[in-house]
Design goal:
Blueprint lengths: L2 E6 L6 H12 L3 E7 L1 H6 L8 H9 L6 E5 L4 H8 L4 E5 L14 E5 L7 H10 L2
Parallel strand pairs: 1-2, 1-4, 2-3, 4-5
The structure holds [cytidine-5'-phosphate] glycerylphosphoric acid ester.
[cytidine-5'-phosphate] glycerylphosphoric acid ester binds next to β1, α1 and β4.
């Protein structure tokens, strides 16, 4: 069984996230999704609209997600990959190169981001519609 993992905040889940999860799952048979904790988001200077438990519930509802884990710090990826015997680590290509150091223990793949959508854009567009 080929196991895939990806990580993210997945706030205000949108089509870009769903395309990423769909493509990540298509690379293997089982997809782990690491959801950034609220504390980890603070390290990423990200203020999510939804708390971890809500973001986790929403990602768990996506058909491509097989298992969710919590992402609490940058260094846990290597541990997660070894512990779960992950074959492929996937991220959107805005992270291209950032995780190449993991290629000694798994295949590292960066997938093209979905253009024209982001949580930031959604917030900005809604703000302007007021
Ligand atoms: N994504 C995408 N297309 C978009 C928006 C996001 O493909 N239009 C992808 C991102 O590249 C990422 C995933 O969806 O692979 C989740 O995006 P975010 O929730 O913004 O995740 P991020 O804050 O980049 O956290 O340790 C890794 C970090 O936790 C990644």
């Amino acid at each position: 069984m080929k196991k895939v993992i990806t990580y993210g905040t997945f706030d205000m889940l949108h089509i870009g996230h769903v395309h990423l999860l769909r493509r990540a799952k298509a690379l293997g048979d089982y997809l782990y999704v690491g959801i950034s904790s609220d504390e980890f988001n603070a390290l990423k200077n990200k203020q999510a609209y939804y708390r971890l438990e809500e973001r986790r519930t929403i990602v768990e509802a996506i058909r491509y997600t097989d298992e969710v884990l919590v992402e609490q710090h940058w260094e846990q990826k290597r541990h997660d990959i070894l512990q779960h015997n992950i074959d492929i680590f996937v991220m959107g290509d805005d992270w291209k190169g950032a995780f190449d150091h993991l290629s000694d223990i798994c295949q590292v793949i960066y997938l093209p981001r979905t253009v024209g959508i982001s949580t930031t854009k959604i917030k900005r567009d809604l703000h302007h519609e007021r």
